[in-house]
Design a protein that fits this description.
The complex is a heterodimer of chains A (about 950) and B (about 110).
Chain A (H helix, E strand, L loop, with lengths): L5 H12 L2 H5 L4 H19 L3 H5 L4 E8 L4 E7 L1 H24 L7 H19 L3 H19 L6 H32 L4 H6 L1 H5 L4 H15 L8 H4 L5 H10 L1 H11 L1 H4 L3 H23 L4 H22 L2 H32 L15 H15 L5 H13 L11 H25 L16 H19 L1 H4 L1 H12 L16 H18 L1 H10 L5 H23 L4 H22 L14 H19 L4 H21 L3 H22 L12 H27 L7 H11 L4 H9 L1 H22 L23 H24 L7 H19 L1 H6 L5 H21 L9 E6 L3 E6 L1 H33 L1
Antiparallel strand pairs in A: 1-2, 3-4
Helix pairs in contact in A: 1-3, 1-6, 3-5, 3-6, 5-6, 5-13, 5-18, 5-22, 5-24, 6-7, 7-8, 8-11, 11-14, 11-16, 13-18, 14-17, 16-17, 16-21, 17-18, 18-19, 18-20, 18-22, 18-24, 19-21, 19-22, 20-21, 20-22, 20-25, 21-25, 28-32, 29-30, 30-31, 31-37, 33-34, 34-35, 35-39, 35-40, 36-37, 37-40, 39-40
Chain B lengths: L1 H19 L4 H21 L20 H32 L11
Classes of the chains: A mainly alpha (about 950), B mainly alpha (about 110).
Chain lengths: ~950, ~110
């Protein structure tokens, strides 16, 4: 197996592994913690064999196609930058697992927590290992979602849920922008594979779509990395448990934004737009967030704003766009992750041991927890940029780059001055963190008595602080190879010469560092006037702005939804028809339909008479629809005219079916009307009627015109096959029936299944239902006492065997002459209905099979089994066979296997009609008893 | 002849849709029935209108297109099933809400 195959394996095992803690949680929190650590350790173990090659400057690539038509491939890449991030994600991840085990309450089994954490880790690994940009976006979205789950971990708390929603709205929105930007980028570069995109920098920067693409991608990066003005979600996200803050909101997820800047640097950077957008945003964020951090009372709030500020610094460094500034940016990613994660963990310890993290109460902790205090002081020193600590080195590189940056030739003093101000603020808030928390008198009203945390809770902080010192004092030995490889892949050019050393001599950057240290401490010492001034300034809370926007959006959405979805079927139907009309009208105008190619047939007087009758029926039913009984009569007229139309135009099968259906439908309508109001109330307003009439006329005119155009268009039948094959292939000369039971038998099987469902629905809907019918008709007259007129019942009884004989005849001849299972079934249904009408439901039901559901099943089974029988002879499903037999009286009939199929159809149709009828009849029995 | 059938389709559609837009279940069922006629006729007409040419194989005969007929035949039967089902739903709704409004309530 080639070693590159390990890359997808790392991501896959992380994603699969995220289930492990959840599954192990039932065995207690120890097991889920071990499971989480085990998953991370195995990912790390898979990564380690690849490290040497990457440190030597190799880029490992591997790809599997996924959706190649869309350019989305499972392509992975490991280079220096990816390796650096993998190490941060997995290394700090392991420490966070250990830390969270002690931080979260004993009662928490941790399964959910660790599973979310691993899901996040898996997505993050996916982001940094993606070679395909679309794949990267997919993982990017998963980080947003898993971050949402983690921030809302304390789901019973309103704050957590709100903060999580805000973070999701901002980073998810940024993710959408990123997707759009990446699609543009892929379009410009001609590929979504990073290897291609990174080599196309020249073409990308000169493309007309460069600016919108860059802005969209930067929106994604800036929202994720909490750059001004999208920064406000990050301080709110501190509602998450502190291990989450340490992992996501300092070391990893917020770094995804700056990771993207570094990743795409060769393709996107190098233009003025990049310089001003990226360095400008970074600079504003750097100073603004540092200023806010200085004024925070909440320990985690201070750290959150300082994180934003440091992310601003990294963004600024990538924006400055010199080779060395990129190196400094990558270096600061490492340093910040190390010292900020340790600071968050220390803050968590303080919160855990004191019960609060308000710096107005938390004072003088050095006496109570000297070891933790020492560790935190060292880490804070690194944050401030104190020499011999790692933060100093990257800050010194920043100062060096600010001096003599090529863009600011005329104002070469501006950037160094700005850098020094930022340095002063960083020192000031770091001093505040150290002095307020660990010195500054005694604690005030702490909920708990502070003391050192458990031994192993402190271990992750210790490890990280040792790293601060190692990198700070022996950079060349400890970090140079990794930094070189990472910066090399961010630049994609040979590395500039740089020297990692603690002492560069007494030069301007060193003076700037000294000024920053002295200035920061002075600022802190003189903080009271500043705080007073700050409190008097009007504050614009981005939080409030967001909240208001969010509420407005929700109100708007509710309005739209309640307008569209107000629970009124009439409204839905009207909007649906309007939409269809609009579409049809648009097609009519934009299309190039040529009318009337063929010659039309001349109309005769019979046709006009039929049309007149149909109009009387349809308009009568419509205009008099409130007199429901009358409307039924008018409707039946329409049905008869339609049946005659089928007769006229060579469709005897349709005419038969239509007639039979017509009778059954009208009887059903009459039966049901018995239990419904006999009249509709006059409740529709004039405008409503006008609107509906307009829609109806529009739709009618549209469909009529379409029908006319269709009938005039040139026509070539696709039925030639059916016509030529009906007799030799299907053994029947009634082509319609052969199509139904043979050529398209499977469709028919589906259709009778639907019909069978109607029969079952009758049972489901009406069984045990009791409806009280009115005791008199709508005009106040009582019902006739004579329920079943003797004349009718005497006449009907001999009709039944006759009708049954007819339906058998129709069934048998159906294959060759008009008829078949559907028609025969309906005729039988009509015959049974007549018995019911003439002699009452009890008379009818006594003479009918009782287990109708079984009969229904038998019908379906017959049809289905006929099809399956052809398997026995090695033919496909529903293959038919046929032969001739002679029957007395009927003559010679062509007996085809599909007749069994048709018998199934017949049984299903009859039984369905019966089931509906039996249920309605059961209702009417209450009525008869009442009379 | 075609114009007459097209007019019939148009009228049936208009009447059907107008009735379907009413607020009570029963007219809606009637409307659906009318609309089914219109749609069935439309489908049928897609095979063109031919006189004296039923698709029954005989010597020396001409045939109309059998495929739309097969489609319409099942459409008629399924349409019947749908009408029956809707009627039962209407009954059930009447029993549940004591009213035959399509939204299951009187409009306030």
């Amino acid at each position: 197996m080639p070693e590159t195959a390990l890359l997808p394996l790392i991501v896959a095992s992380a994603f699969i592994g995220c289930l492990v803690p959840g599954l192990l949680a039932r065995f207690g929190r120890n097991m889920s913690a071990l499971g989480a650590a085990g998953v991370m350790a195995s990912c790390l173990a898979l990564l380690i064999p690849l490290i040497p090659a990457v440190l030597n400057g190799k880029t490992l690539l591997t790809a599997y196609t996924w959706l190649p038509d869309y350019g989305l491939n499972l392509a992975f890449r490991l280079d220096g930058l990816g390796l650096l991030f993998c190490l941060l994600i997995l290394g700090i991840g392991l420490l966070v697992v250990l830390y969270a085990y002690y931080y979260l309450p004993e009662s928490d089994r941790l399964g959910r927590f660790y599973s979310y954490l691993l899901l996040f880790m898996a997505a993050m690994l996916g982001v940094v290992l993606s070679e395909n940009l679309l794949l990267l976006v997919v993982f990017w979205e998963v980080t947003s979602i898993s971050s949402f789950l983690l921030i809302a971990y304390k789901r019973d708390q309103r704050d957590s849920r709100h903060a999580a929603r805000m973070a999701l709205a901002i980073t998810g929105g940024g993710g959408l922008a990123l997707l759009a930007g990446v699609l543009l980028l892929g379009y410009i570069a001609g590929s979504y594979e990073l290897s291609v995109v990174l080599a196309e920098g020249e073409r990308i920067r000169n493309h007309a779509l460069y600016a919108p693409m860059l802005i969209l991608i930067l929106l994604g990066a800036f929202t994720k990395s909490a750059q001004f003005p999208f920064h406000f979600w990050l301080p709110n996200a501190m509602a998450a448990p502190t291990p989450v803050s340490a992992y996501l909101h300092s070391a990893t997820m917020v770094k995804a934004g700056v990771f993207l800047l570094a990743r795409l640097h060769p393709a996107l950077a190098g233009s003025e737009l990049w310089f001003w957008l990226v360095s400008g945003t970074g600079a504003i964020t750097l100073v603004y967030a540092a200023y806010i951090a200085f004024h925070r009372y909440d320990l985690k709030g201070l750290l959150a704003y300082s994180t934003i500020s440091h992310l601003g610094l990294i963004t600024l460094l990538f924006g400055l766009d010199t080779p060395l500034s990129v190196v400094a940016g990558v270096f600061h990613i490492i340093n910040h992750a190390i010292f900020k994660a340790s600071l968050f963990m220390a803050a968590g310890i303080i919160d855990h041991e004191c019960g609060t993290r308000d710096m107005r109460q938390v004072n003088g902790l050095f006496k109570f927890m000297p070891i933790t205090a020492t560790l935190a002081i060292v880490a804070a020193g690194s944050m401030a940029g104190v020499p011999l600590l790692n933060g100093f080195l990257s800050k010194e590189m920043f100062f060096t780059e600010s001096v003599g940056h090529p863009v600011f030739e005329d104002m070469s003093w501006l950037l160094p001055l700005f850098a020094t101000v930022a340095g002063i603020l960083a020192v000031a808030y770091s001093s505040r963190f150290i002095h307020d928390v660990f010195f500054n008198g005694d604690p005030i009203d702490l909920p708990r008595h502070p003391h050192e945390p458990p031994r192993w809770m402190r271990a992750p902080v210790e490890i990280l602080v040792v790293l601060c010192l190692l990198v700070g004092m022996f950079p060349q030995w400890s970090i140079a190879p990794l930094l070189g490889a990472a910066a090399g892949s961010a630049l994609q050019t040979p590395l500039p010469a740089f020297e990692l050393a603690v002492w560069h001599g007494f030069n301007l950057p060193f003076i700037m560092s000294l000024v920053a240290l002295a200035g920061g401490i002075t600022l802190y010492a003189l903080r009271q006037p500043f705080f007073a001034l700050h409190n008097r300034l009007p504050s614009i809370h981005a939080n409030l702005v967001f909240k208001r926007l969010y509420e407005q959006l929700m109100i708007f959405a509710h309005r739209v939804v309640s307008w569209l979805d107000n629970g009124s079927l009439q409204r839905y139907l009207a909007s649906f028809i309007t939409f269809v009309l609009a579409l049809g009208g648009w097609a009519w105008y934009s299309g190039s339909a040529t009318l009337a190619v063929a010659t039309y047939q001349p109309a005769d007087s019979a046709a006009f008479a039929a049309l007149a009758t149909l109009m009387v029926g349809a308009l009568g039913a419509t205009l008099l629809h409130r007199q429901r009984f009358t409307a039924i009569i008018f409707t039946s007229v329409v049905g008869l005219v339609v049946a005659l139309t089928f007769v006229r135009f060579s469709a005897p099968d349709l005419a038969l079916t239509q007639l039979a259906v017509e009778v059954v439908t009208i009887v059903l309508l009459l039966l049901v009307l018995h239990y419904l109001p006999q009249h509709s109330p006059a409740e529709d307003s004039g405008p409503r009627l006008m609107r509906d009439a307009a829609l109806a006329v529009g739709a009618g005119a549209g469909l009529g015109a379409t029908a006319f155009a269709m009938m005039g268009a040139p026509f070539e039948t696709i039925s030639g096959f059916y016509l030529t094959q009906s007799v030799p292939g299907g053994g029947g000369s009634n082509v319609v029936n052969v199509i139904l039971v043979d050529f398209r038998g499977f469709d028919t099987l589906g259709e009778i299944t639907v019909l069978a469902m109607v029969g079952l629905a009758a049972h489901a809907l009406l069984d045990k239902l009791i409806l009280v019918a009115p005791r008199h008709d709508s005009d106040g007259r009582p019902w006739a006492k004579e329920l079943h007129p003797l004349f009718l019942s005497i006449l009907m009884r001999p009709l039944l065997p006759l009708a049954l004989a007819v339906s058998v005849f129709i069934l048998l001849r159906g294959h060759n002459m008009p008829g078949g299972g559907f028609v025969a079934g309906l005729v039988t249904g009509v015959a049974l209905i007549l018995q019911y009408l003439a002699s009452g439901i009890d008379f009818a039901l006594q003479r009918l099979p009782r287990h109708k559901a079984k009969l229904l099943a038998l019908g379906l089974l017959l049809a289905a089994a006929t099809g399956a029988a052809s398997w026995l002879f090695g033919h496909p499903y529903l293959t038919s066979t046929h032969g001739h037999i002679a029957l007395p009286l009927i003559g010679e009939i062509e007996l085809a296997s599909v007749m069994v199929f048709d018998l199934g159809v017949y049984i299903v149709v009859v039984t369905t009609v019966l089931m509906v009828l039996a249920q309605l009849g059961r209702l009417s029995r209450h009525h008869e008893e009442a009379i | 002849m075609e114009a007459i059938v097209a007019t019939a389709i148009g009228i049936l559609t208009a009447c059907g849709i107008f009735l379907m837009l009413r607020a009570r279940t029963f007219p809606v069922v009637l409307g659906l029935t009318l609309l089914s006629y219109a749609v069935n006729l439309f489908l049928f007409a897609s095979g063109r209108l031919m006189l004296d040419a039923p698709p029954l194989i005989r010597a020396g005969a001409r045939y109309t297109d059998p495929l739309p007929q097969a489609l319409v035949l099942t459409a008629i039967v399924i349409g019947f099933g749908m009408t029956a089902y809707l009627l039962m739903v209407a009954l059930r709704a009447m029993a549940e809400t004591g009213d035959d409004h399509v939204d299951g309530r009187e409009k306030s």
